[in-house]
Amino acid sequence: MTIVELLSYLTLVIGTLLDHISTHYVLLFPGGYEGNALPAWLMSINLGFLFDLIFVPACILISHFLYSRLGRVAIAVPIFNIVFGLRRFDAFFHNLYILTLYLVP
User: Fold this and answer.
1) What is the model's pTM?
2) What pLDDT score was predicted for residue 60?
3) Mean pLDDT for the chain?
4) Which is nearest to 26 in space by CA: 99, 87, 103, 104?
5) Phi-psi region of 29 (alpha: psi -120 to 50; beta: other; left: phi over 0)
6) d(CA 23, CA 28)
7) 66 near 77, Cβ under 8 Å?
8) 86 Cβ contact list (under 8 Å, min separation 6)
9) How many Å apart are CA 17 and CA 56, to the nearest integer?
């Protein structure tokens, strides 16, 4: 496992975990909402965490399989995990901003 591959997995897992936790706290406040329709629907039927629990390992397994089969040529394979993880970090920072709006009078 290369450092790029490990970095992509860590980015994906940590970003998803932080986004999920911060979204939970935002939804505890009155007026807090999930802006994305699919996660909002999944959360309304209590499947949001289960979806992340299945989706993240699936992304890791598929990208690890492709990366190991294609070798060094497949340096672009971990890019999906990095981009997706950074997007979840962005959602975490957005949720953190919303939490500061609620908590600071």
Assistant:
1) 0.85
2) 92
3) 89
4) 99
5) beta
6) 9
7) yes
8) 11, 15
9) 10
